[in-house]
Specification:
Number of strands: 6
Shape: globular
Bound molecules: iron/sulfur cluster
Strand order of the largest sheet: 1-2
Radius of gyration: 24 Å
Amino acid sequence: MSQINPSLSLANPHPPQLSVGQKVFAAIGGVGLLFLFVAWAASQQFNITHLLYPSLLLMAIGVVGYARLMYKDLPAGVKNNGNYFSSLTNRGLWAWLAGIIITGFYVLLYFYEGLLGFNEAGNTGLVQLFDPLSFALKGKAASQWFVYGTLYTLAILVFGVKFIWKYRHNKYQIIRTLSVMFFQLGFAFLIPELLEGLNSDKAYFAKDLKNMWPLNYYFFEDWHLNAMLSGGNLGKFMLVFGVAMIVIISPVLTYFFGKRWYCSWVCGCGGLAETAGDPFRHLSDKSLTAWKIERWLIYSVLIFILLTTALVLYTYFTGNAQVWFLNTYSLRSWYGFAIGAIFSGVIGVGFYPILGSRVWCRFGCPMAAILGLQQRFFSRFRITTNGGQCISCGNCSTYCEMGIDVRWYAQRGQNIVRASCVGCGICSAVCPRGVLRLENGPVDKDRFGDVSPIIIGRDEVSIAD
Ligand code: SF4
Ligand code: SF4
């Protein structure tokens, strides 16, 4: 049924109406999601495990089919119409509902896994639903983290396909998204799970090659170091590779490419933010106050993890857990609770529809803080701006998920060299004038570009001193 548009605006202020096909695919995805809830609620009454694959398949078909119909008839290019008129993407009722549901799921995941059905003596509910896949990959029953990893990977894959259709005019976005999909599916999910199955007789240690310290905050904890040291060749390799990532591989890659090599091409947190979080990127706060909070918060978390790790290592080598008034075991559990669970999980993802998709990366991630400092002071990466072409539309600032006022730089013709920039390239992808370019070049003072604003007057165009 067509909707009458009473507005005289040339730009239709109403969000586009769903086609019949989109409604069908939304319903298919909804049925897949419903299967999860049915399995969760009725695992005692029925054998629910056969619902797993249909559920995952229906959700995937629903999202991919919906996205295909959404973009297939539109020309390639910037497509963000209606963002501020949709309840889900402009902090309306649907956004709050989605935020509450996702946040609630994270609370169960971290603190009440029994309610999800996790039980070492035999799973029930949602966790039991995932047992067949867990047995197939690693030969043992699922945990709540396996459920989370599977759904997380599925989200990056299906919303990644949607993202590629949306930004198909931009080769950088296509390759970058294929990269995060590849790293999530292979390095974060399949390889660690298969290796876990092959080493089931050994104590647990992290097997995700790309999840390095300080993002993996327990890397240097005594139980983890001991598990790696007693974990055979694989354990020792993970220890050596993990340290090499911190001191050699990451600094070298950040020098050449900026923090984007990790935050926008490899990291799972960034992967979810860029794909499932894409419709919410404009919600990031661009105010000066937010920027001040960002700097205080992210560097405080960095100091917290540096201190915690130093004391944890002190305990490992001396056996002494008390340093002045600090107990190193309490400190690490506080970090795990406050930063590892609440900040990165519950707030970081649960608040996507309210605060934007990179809340954790921008305000909390200590890995982003380290990479950002290097990017700011010792990296070849910069975004160059062709100020004369800028029409001050503000698209770039609006869609910068890290809250950077890109337009301010573009208007001045100044290069963007910011610690917080994750190099996602969306500012460049949504610029209708081709003003912005992500580049690598020499590390010298020219990296910051010409900071003199271009003044366009009635009689002349000049460059201010
Ligand atoms: S400045 Fe551009 S590349 Fe950097 S985070 Fe913002 S949108 Fe992404
Ligand atoms: S740089 Fe591009 S997107 Fe940003 S304000 Fe200028 S024209 Fe608009």
